[in-house]
From TrEMBL:
This is Lipopolysaccharide assembly protein B. TPR repeats lie at residues 50-83, 84-117, 154-187. Pfam families: TPR_11, TPR_16. The lineage of its organism: Bacteria, Pseudomonadati, Pseudomonadota, Betaproteobacteria, Burkholderiales. The keyword Chaperone does not apply.
Amino acid sequence: MSRALRGWSSALLVLLLAATLVGCAGGARPTGAGQDWVTESDEPPQRKRARTRVELAAGYFEQGQYTVALDEVKQAIQIDPTYPAAFNLRGLIYTALRDSRLAEDSFQQALRLDPRDGDTWHNYGWMLCQEARYPASFDALRRALDTPGYRGVARTWLALGVCQARAGQRQDAERALLRAFELDPGNPITMYNLALLLHQRGDDERARFYARRLNNSELANAESLWLGVKIERRLGNREAAQQLGEQLRRRFPASREAGSYERGAFDE
């Protein structure tokens, strides 16, 4: 589909980045029943130094400077080899560098250090999905969802739905994406994937609801407008399809989707 981050194919990578920023936050955590919470003031000096390196690495990762980020993470691990967030971020960096073996080793090490980290389970599951290792991916993503206090539930339901759709499990994918939409109805990636899935299943009346909701917002892009064109055409709404097509040509004239519209390639 699209090549830039504005496209929903590439925007799925934001799932990884969001998990990085959450996972590196180092929030408070209870130590057990009847015990006080562990906070930053309880951290030993080496953990604080390692956390600073990880935060720097996360910033470089966000900017796409993967090798610089990796160097910072390596230094964090040298300072504190028991810091799970460092291995979690290292896994994301290796995922971005397309080294699945080292990415998996990193996520597994992070989970050995902290098996209750929902963000690491999410990141690991998303990496497995990219490798088309779907059963293992589903298991890891569900482990994230089952983690007490996990704050990325909507993001993980979205990732699970996308992976299930890729695996051909469309009914399960629809249930997961609907759950993601229920939790975060303003997420454009969720709306796009729901509209796409329902359109592919031939349920264009329902697909139109999500496509219109997205295309009537400032978050519409070439992919969502092109999908809206195809949905409206299939429903026989030629005027609505033409209006969306004109938006596509005007706002994204250099996009592949605009080229497809110009050619009338509605069945591609």
